[in-house]
Design a protein that fits this description.
The complex is a heterodimer. Chain A is α/β, with parallel strands linked by helices. Chain A has helices at 7-10, 13-19, 66-72, 105-122, 149-157, 167-175, 197-204, 218-221, 249-272, 286-296; strands at 38-44, 48-54, 76-84, 87-93, 126-132, 138-143, 182-188, 209-216, 231-236, 242-246, 276-281. Chain A folds into 2 domains: 7-30 and 85-296, von Willebrand factor, type A domain (Rossmann fold), CATH 3.40.50; 40-84, no CATH class. In chain A, helix 4 (105-122) packs antiparallel against helix 5 (149-157) and helix 6 packs parallel to helix 7 (197-204). Chain A is elongated. Chain B is α+β, with helices and mostly antiparallel strands. Chain B has 5 domains: 9-91 and 654-674, no CATH class; 99-247 and 627-648, von Willebrand factor, type A domain (Rossmann fold), CATH 3.40.50; 251-363, Immunoglobulin-like (Sandwich), CATH 2.60.40; 367-538, Class I glutamine amidotransferase (GATase) domain (Rossmann fold, 3-Layer(aba) Sandwich); 554-616. Chain B is built from 11 helices and 40 strands. In chain B, strands 24-23-25-26-31-30-29-27-28 form a 9-stranded mixed β-sheet. Chain B is elongated. The two termini of chain B are 49 Å apart. Classes of the chains: A alpha/beta, B alpha+beta. At the A-B interface, strand 9, strand 10 and helix 9 of A face strand 2 and helix 2 of B. Strand 9 of chain A pairs parallel with strand 2 of chain B, so a sheet runs across the interface.
Chain lengths: 301, 675
């Protein structure tokens, strides 16, 4: 597959049409900054009843439930859920480890980010994008509305995967970024030299509904089936460290076990922190991922 | 059917091959342990691979050696190179020569018993020669056409036992028929004999040799004399099959002589010379036996010095000089003749030279007739000798006596003719001065004056202690002798002293009158006179004082009517002899050392018995050295010996290098296909 050169390469009109009917679903109810199209925990002026509470001085008399007062001779204030907008944060891993695989993992992450961001913009959510893994955290925040699609696409297109690690710093920046609570989508292979634990811990405790989408290339999942054989000197794309490997059956089996245990550890870590973890193979069609996998995992509806 | 292929390999440079092998093969294998030619590949992270392989690496600096075609090919190529450096040679069962001459040494030193299970060197040489014959005709995958084989046995002389033949059975029989001798060794005759059979020249140009030289296969212990005068010609190849041990040491009797005391003829004085070829001094008793009975032993063990080195000595003999000791025994009382044997009490691997014998004739005062003018000089000389009788005759008296009795010469041991010539000298033993014996076939053809001696045969018994350097002859008779004549002294004008032997006639002719020279004034004249009388007197009885050497021919004069003649050799074997000429007998060559006894029926000999004894002694100085040589130094080149059945070898290193090159090409091709 050729590399991405223009915004239209990120998402085509056919996919956009199919995504128009989707919306990002959060398992949590957040307090938005402006009135949006979803329920908020903040009691407000929407028509959806939330609770009662005793009247206190200064309350708006318009929300007094007079029927209760008639029956009980006491003033109760009727509380309603207020509809707010959803903050949607997409964090893209720009470390060099993403620049690999066939199909390319970084291209896949950028197309996925474009699709998810488009869904967010179409549904009038507040979309923010972060790129981590380089020397500085790159960001594009405060996007709302379909008209910001091209701007978002250009920003995504300009990203390059040439950094080293930076996951922990990136997640800390996201957590402290004041983007409001919402859905956090992390698009990464989660193969960080420093580990993923501290980074995920930053965002897990901040009220984000976190989705960790672990993008792996087919040859990373099953190297034997994709031509990895013989006596090899493997070079780490991020650290440059070399490992000499003879791709014997036993070594490949050992690698598969190591990968499975790594993914399992990430999944366990995520589950314990209410993070949704999903392994995404870069060879999976994007519409299949969005319309099937992620809908089943409850991210999209 | 099973086929056995025996491939004998020897190494010229095994140490070099070992060093190269040890310095190259382990590093090559280590390279495969340490490093592989790996394909570089960039991946997202090596983290998972590191985890996957850390168990397998087990923190060891080396990985497990895996079967690799490249490694196998490289090891094979390297092994071939290492083998080539070691320069192997193998018997490929072929000889490039179409003709092979097998030279088998059967000299005295080949009787040394230092082989396996006490086997003699000759037996070992015959075994190896037979094995070589089988290999030449054995066939096999490397074998070419079998060459024609000639078998020559050599010691003092060379003998063709089998001319060139393709019949392996015939050649094998020839090898088996080689008998031991105690003779000396010379290779010159063997080469001449072989070349006589093998040199084929162009009929149009005899200087052009058109036949390919043969390959020589020499089976010997390398103790060969005169090698510095022996050369291998262009194209001739020699393979030396060395037999015997280098460490074998020996000693023996180098010379033995016995003589009756001139004053007391019943006493015999014995002289012996003991030689030692060993590296250590020899300490041994020396025993004297007379007719097989021990008569004397040295009062104390003699100590013979060890062998030394002398660069001037024949290089083929290793430049060694034997340690020697002269031993003189006290006089032995011997009223009759007999066999005196001297032997070393301490035997070694070469037994034949540990003993020597000499025949002592019974005391026999001579009966002399002096015919002629009866001059003062000769009469005085004869009267001064211990003779049984001396009778003086004028020439007329002698002729008259001969007319009456033609057998009258037999009444005298020697007849001295002093410038007088009888009418006939058909039989008898004569010492003749001056007048030539024309009736005996010596033809005069003039008179010469002022003659000087040109050459003499110093080794002849007649010339013992005789110096003719200052002899001046004023007038001599120029004569021409027949085939029966042997010239002892040659003058510038012709033979000066000669001997002749024809049937019952033996004579010594001096072709000048001593009174026409200054000889009577020289001491050598007296010695010559005595030598001539002793030599002539002993000629018909026995080999009195001079033992024979192996390879010599024994001659004797038997009494008329002798029949059923046989010779008993030292081993006890009897050989019947048929004599055509009734009076004379020649037998030989005498191969082994020891005492040969000739016996017959009929009339008794002059010794009063029907037996004559001949002593044959091995020369310990020439052949007694027993330490085998591992290489032979010819005049122009050196030939290394092969042992233990190793035979004609072909160099394998060119083939090994070619194989290594092919393997490297294959390895390169495999490598290209992988990368």
């Amino acid at each position: 597959m050729s590399r991405l050169e223009k915004v239209d390469d990120l998402i085509d009109s056919r996919l956009m049409a199919r995504l128009d009917g989707l919306d990002v679903v959060s398992r949590k109810i957040f307090t938005g900054k402006i009135q949006g199209e979803r329920r908020s925990r903040r009691r407000g002026q929407s028509v959806e009843f939330a609770d009662f509470r005793n009247y206190s001085h200064g309350d708006d008399l318009r929300f007094v439930d007079w029927n209760i007062y008639a029956r009980l001779d006491r003033l109760f204030l009727k509380l309603f859920l207020e509809e707010e907008d959803l903050s949607m944060v997409i964090a893209i891993d720009q470390s060099a480890s993403m620049e690999g695989g066939d199909p390319n993992k970084f291209d896949y992450a950028r197309r996925l980010a474009m699709a998810l961001g488009y869904i967010g913009l179409v549904n009038n959510n507040r979309v923010s994008l972060f790129g981590f893994g380089t020397n500085r955290i790159e960001r594009l925040t405060g996007l709302r509305g379909r008209r910001r699609t091209r701007e978002m696409g250009q920003w995504i297109l300009d990203r390059e995967a040439n950094g080293v690690g930076g996951f922990t710093d990136g997640m800390r920046t996201v957590a402290l970024g004041g983007q409001g609570r919402g859905v956090l989508l992390i698009l990464s292979d989660f193969l960080f030299p420093e580990g993923y634990e501290k980074g995920l811990a930053y965002v897990a405790g901040r009220g984000f509904d976190v989705f960790a989408l672990q993008i792996l290339a087919p040859e990373e999942i099953d190297p034997a089936r994709h031509g990895l054989a013989g006596d090899l000197r493997l070079i780490d794309s991020e650290t440059g460290s070399e490992t000499e490997v003879t791709a014997s059956t036993s070594v490949l089996d050992q690698y598969t076990q190591s990968l499975e245990s790594y993914v399992a550890a990430l999944r366990d870590f995520s589950v314990r922190r209410s993070i949704t973890h999903q392994v995404v193979e870069s060879s999976v069609q994007l519409d299949t991922l969005l319309l099937d996998y992620l809908r089943r995992r409850g991210l999209l509806a | 059917m099973s086929v056995t292929l025996t491939l004998a390999i020897s190494w010229i440079a095994p140490l070099a091959g070992t060093i190269v092998a040890l310095s190259t093969i382990p590093p090559l294998v280590a390279l495969y342990f340490l490093r592989l030619r790996r394909t570089r590949r960039v991946i997202s992270t090596t983290m998972l691979w590191t985890r996957a392989t850390q168990d397998l690496r087990a923190n060891a600096p080396f990985q497990r050696l895996r079967l690799s075609l490249l490694l196998l090919l490289q090891l094979l190529a390297l092994a071939l190179v290492v083998l080539a450096i070691a320069q192997p040679e193998a018997d490929l069962g072929e000889s490039k020569a179409t003709r092979v001459v097998m030279l088998i040494d059967h000299s005295g030193s080949m009787n040394a018993l230092d082989g396996i299970d006490g086997m003699s060197r000759l037996a070992e040489a015959k075994q190896r020669a037979a094995a070589r014959l089988r290999s030449l005709h054995g066939g096999g995958m490397f074998s070419g056409p079998a060459p024609s084989v000639m078998v020559i046995a050599f010691s003092k002389d060379a003998q063709v036992l089998c001319p060139f033949t393709d019949n392996v059975t015939q050649a094998m029989h020839a090898v088996e028929s080689v008998l031991p001798t105690d003779g000396t060794t010379t290779l010159t005759d063997a080469f001449e004999l072989a070349r006589a059979f093998t040199t084929v020249t162009n009929p149009d140009d005899e200087s052009v040799v058109i036949a390919r030289p043969p390959a020589y296969e020499l089976f010997s212990d390398g103790i060969i004399a005169n090698m510095d005068r022996t050369v291998l010609r262009a194209g001739e190849r020699m393979t030396y099959h060395s037999v015997g041990q280098e460490s074998t040491e020996s000693a023996g009797i180098g010379a033995l002589a016995a003589a009756r005391n001139p004053e007391r003829t019943d006493e015999v004085q014995v002289f012996a010379r003991v030689v030692n070829w060993g590296r250590a001094p020899l300490t041994s008793d020396l025993e004297v036996l007379v007719d097989g009975r021990l008569r004397a032993v040295t009062p104390a063990p003699i100590v013979v010095p060890a062998a030394g080195k002398d660069a001037a000595v024949d290089a083929a003999m290793g430049g060694a000089v034997a340690g020697e000791m002269q031993v003189v025994f006290p006089s032995l009382s011997m009223l009759q003749g007999g066999v005196i044997e001297v032997r070393l009490a301490k035997n070694d691997a070469l037994i034949a030279d540990d003993r020597a014998a000499v025949i002592v004739a019974p005391p026999h005062p001579l009966k002399i007739a002096l015919v002629g003018r009866g001059g003062f000089v000769m009469r005085s000389l004869l009267e001064g000798m211990a003779l049984a009788s001396l009778e003086l005759f004028s020439i007329e008296e002698w002729n008259r006596r001969m007319t009456i009795d033609a057998q009258s010469p037999d009444a005298f041991d020697v007849i001295v003719l002093d410038n007088a010539m009888p009418d006939s000298i058909a039989r008898g033993r004569y010492l003749i001065f001056g007048a030539p014996p024309t009736s005996a076939g010596i033809i005069p053809y003039g008179t010469k004056s002022s003659t000087i001696v040109r050459s003499i045969r110093e080794e002849h018994p007649l010339l013992q202690y005789v110096n003719l350097d200052d002899l001046f002859v004023a007038s001599m008779t120029a004569v021409a002798g027949g085939a029966e004549c042997e010239v002892i002294v040659e003058a510038s004008e012709g033979p000066l002293i000669l001997t002749m032997h024809r049937g019952p006639l033996t004579l010594v002719y001096v072709a000048f009158d001593p009174m026409e020279s200054d000889w009577p004034f020289q001491r050598g004249f007296v010695n010559f006179f005595a030598n001539a009388l002793a030599w002539l007197a002993a000629g018909g009885t026995a080999v009195a004082d001079e033992p024979l050497a192996p390879g010599d021919v024994a001659t004797a004069r038997l009494p008329a009517g002798a029949h059923d003649i046989a010779m008993r050799d030292p081993g006890g074997g009897e050989t019947p002899i048929v004599v055509q000429d009734a009076g004379n007998l020649s037998y030989g060559p005498l191969a082994r050392s020891g005492v040969y006894r000739l016996h017959w029926s009929g009339a008794k000999g002059s010794s009063g018995t029907n037996e004559l004894a001949f002593a044959v002694n091995m020369n310990a100085r020439a052949e007694g050295r027993a330490n085998a040589a591992r290489e032979i130094q010819f005049a122009t080149e050196r030939v290394a010996g092969v042992q233990g059945g190793a035979i004609t070898l072909s160099s394998l290193w060119p083939w090994l290098l070619l194989g290594a090159f092919v393997l490297l090409c294959v390895e390169w091709w495999v490598w290209l296909r992988r990368v």
